[in-house]
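Handoff note, outgoing to incoming analyst
You'll be picking up this chain. Sequence as last confirmed:
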Amino acid sequence: MIPSEINKQSANSEKFKKLGKQLESALNEVETMRKQQNELVTHVEKLVSSVERQNSIRKEILKRANFNPISGLPNHNLLDSNLMSFFDSGKGDSKPGALVLLQLDNNFDMISKTQESLIGSWLVYRTGLRLRKYIGKNGSVYHIRDEKFLLHIFKANTATEFAPFLIKIDRQISKPYIFASQHIVIGCVIGATLYPTDGNNKNALLNNADIALSEARRKNRNYAFFEPKMLDDAVRMMKTRSSMIQALEKNAVDKISKQLYLNLQPIVSISQIKKNKPIIENINAEALIRWRHPIEGNVPPDAFIPIAEETGVIIVIGKWVLYKAAAQIEVWEWQQIKSKLAINVSPRQFHNDDLIDSIRRIIKNRRINPEKLQIEITENSFLDDPYDATKKISRLKDLGISVAIDDFGTGFSSINYLKQLPVDAVKIDRSFVEDLTTSANGYSIVKAIIALTQELGMTNIAEGVETWEQLELLMQLGISTFQGFLFSKALSPDDYAEFYRRYKEY
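Most recent structure output, in case you need it:
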């Protein structure tokens, strides 16, 4: 091969090598770019996924913040913002409507406490569904607390026109719920306020609805509409509550004794009426609490006892009553007054775990005969837990204390419960005694109560006896023990002692 050809081939070989290196470098650059692109795509996908995840988390947070997890309904947060927007826009002035506060009743509370939590949650969910279905496009439904719902109704002119709507809501809630073949019935209490009649401010209207609900609950009604006087009543109750709590803050018994005191109303047992005069064989008494307020004067019991019960102050007052009653029995012993003294124990006090021990301590410290003490409870005291009530009454009787059911017939007790309770006496409520001479139904009810309780071996005591006609009819029906103004009003301890001696001497 000639040198020129060799040189030519060598030059071409160098070119190919150079081109090969350039191609390889280009391919490497392309691969690097592809990797970078893939990395970029992956990074973008991760960013997108992260954003989506954050949006999902944000939505979930907003959902949890604004919707009740059990019912799925908007909660108090959305209620607050929606109502603020609604009333700030002026819509409440031009379009009359209503805010309705609905609270499930004690049946729901009892079911929640005694049954599996699943049942309570299921009832709340089903209640929300019923409300949402019934209200439809006429308003909004909010679930603001475990047992409370708020309805914003877009059209409501007057209380008279709107009342049938509330009655229908109550009926919807009261329809039986079927859970695992069981029929469960719960009810509700409703408080309603109308706008702009009652105001056009969110906070004021919500407060109005709450006051109306409290009024309905206090008067044992299904619903109530807000009225301006309810505000005055609420303020007065707050002042009463404040005064009561102040009276109990320090040295409770001493402070109570300066303002509270006991009067004694005679309970008489009559053998016959002779020459238009009752022949009294035995005299006992019921201790009735009174409050002499340093500024307001005498405050009636029905004005402060419910508040004391609500706040729990009744526990302290109840212990004071026990203490004073024991002291009175001790005084009677040296006065040779052989009366038994009955004291009222409220439902809250009856359910207090310390009740039996408190009574035992007071009896021991005062060294009184427990047979001289009678405890009076209302029907509501044993409705929540009849089994526990039966045990507690039995323990009282083991101490030698007799037990009576007060205001019998005004609660919702059943005959089955009455059969189970080891009580000694039943006090027939004054409302039945009042109807005795004016209503055939009233006479029949009293007759039935007497027959039932006598069959169970219980003593009957008629409360609120005010006329001779009532007395004669009650004696004909078989009652011999009475309490009422026909014989005496509530007396001071000194006046009671005089009453006792006068009739005993007679």
